[in-house]
Design brief:
The protein has helices at 20-34, 52-62, 81-87, 107-117, 133-150, 166-169, 181-191, 215-232, 244-269, 274-297, 310-338, 342-367; strands at 4-13, 35-44, 67-70, 92-96, 121-126, 161-165, 196-201. By secondary structure, it is an alpha/beta fold. It has two domains: 4-236, Spore Coat Polysaccharide Biosynthesis Protein SpsA, Chain A (Alpha-Beta Complex), CATH 3.90.550; 244-367, no CATH class. Strand 1, helix 1 and strand 2 (35-44) form a beta-alpha-beta unit. Helix 9 packs antiparallel against helix 12 (342-367). It is elongated and about 80 Å long.
Length: 370
């Protein structure tokens, strides 16, 4: 197997007394297999309630080259990983959690993938989760929301099993003070020009202790942190990408006004069912959305004419038609369960619009305006 020239490995430890020595020992075992030279860094990421820091110091006795960063006064939660990046001195940086839920042997998969693809960032993605059902569901939901909001180049933001070329880390500062630092890290690496690749990795149940976050607490922290982060990142995004989702949303609001107006005119003045009213009301909104998104959101020079070109418009119409059917099905299901009333129809009509918004944006930017 080809080796990296040099590698820094760091782990954030917090209330991880039972896994500290195991994971540090494993790091010293795997490192010579993947790199010519290496350093191991242990971060004490907070005022642990157990003997985590004592275990780190014991590991230092067996492995004198171990570097220790004591952040017992840490108030940034998982944001403490920024100190690992700052103190890494080698050409490549790898980090993962200190709770031993990942298999360090799989670092070889990341290194192998780098040599096969030339990627500057090789990120793992979990093939399964060694967590409870609620954490699993919320984790997957957050990954999809985060990927959508920031247009991230990877599928699993939460998978802290990543290998990064340090020259890209040196191009920016991390400013997040909570777990939203993960979205910031990935987005800033992308904006710095890093090439990404992904590798499936294993994820296991905890061997010791409990998570320092409740599932809902972590979900809320990341969601609110990402909201603040979105506006912080505006200043470093290129002009075309700035607020693109906001522009897309503005076009969507105009289309929604058209849809809602026609939808209610139809159901109030005719005997047409809400399902079919949804589809009919959407047709004018579709044409309007294409024209405005083409000129205002994506600013595609190839299609800068008042009338739409057939091929891109066909793709656009196909995507929106599918989401319209999804929206209509949501309205139909809502009426079926809760009855045919003006309020129920409009409530599920708006739910369908929100679902359609996410699907439309994700597919349009990939298939229509690439």
């Amino acid at each position: 197997m080809m080796k990296l020239r040099s590698l820094s490995i760091f782990f954030p430890f917090y209330n991880d007394e039972g896994t500290v020595f195991e994971i540090i020992s494993k790091a010293y075992d795997i490192s010579p297999k993947v790199a010519d030279t290496f350093e191991i860094i242990a971060i004490h990421g907070g005022n642990s309630k157990d003997k985590t820091f004592e275990e780190i110091k014991k590991a230092k006795v067996k492995f004198p080259s171990l570097k220790i960063i004591d952040k017992s006064d840490n108030t940034e939660g998982y944001g403490v990983i920024k100190h690992g990046f700052k103190n890494a001195t080698k050409e490549w940086v790898f980090y993962t959690d200190g709770d031993a839920q990942y298999n360090l042997d799989e670092l070889e998969l990341l290194v192998k993938n780098h040599f096969e693809t030339g990627a500057d960032v090789v990120n793992g993605y979990k093939t399964s989760r060694g967590d409870g059902l609620v954490r699993h569901i919320l984790g997957d939901l957050y990954a999809k929301i985060s990927t959508f909001i920031f247009e991230l180049p990877i599928r699993d933001t939460d998978c802290d099993f990543r290998l990064i070329k340090k020259e890209f880390l040196d191009k920016f500062e991390l400013v997040s003070t909570d777990s939203s630092i993960l979205g910031e890290l990935i987005k800033k690496l992308e904006l710095s020009g890093a090439k990404f690749s992904e590798v499936p990795v294993s994820h296991f149940d905890r061997k010791y202790g409990f998570s320092n976050y409740t599932p809902f607490g972590l979900f809320k922290e990341k969601l609110f942190g990402d909201f603040k982060l979105y506006f912080k990142l505006r200043s470093i995004r290129d002009g075309k990408a700035k607020l693109r989702i906001i522009r897309f949303g503005s076009v969507g609001i105009i289309s929604v006004i058209i849809q809602v107006t026609l939808f209610n005119l139809i159901i109030l003045s005719t005997s047409i069912k809400p399902f079919w009213a949804t589809i009919l009301a959407d047709q004018l909104a579709i044409f309007n959305s294409f024209i405005l998104n083409n000129r205002y959101t994506f600013n595609d020079k190839k299609y800068q004419k008042f009338y739409p070109k057939i091929k891109p418009f066909f793709k656009f119409y196909l995507i929106v038609s599918i989401t319209t059917l999804i929206q209509a099905f949501i309205v139909y299901t809502g009426n079926l369960v809760f009855g045919y009333s003006f309020f129920v129809s409009n409530f599920f009509f708006m739910v369908g619009i929100l679902v359609s918004f996410v699907i439309n944006y994700s597919f349009q930017k990939r298939l229509v305006w690439k």
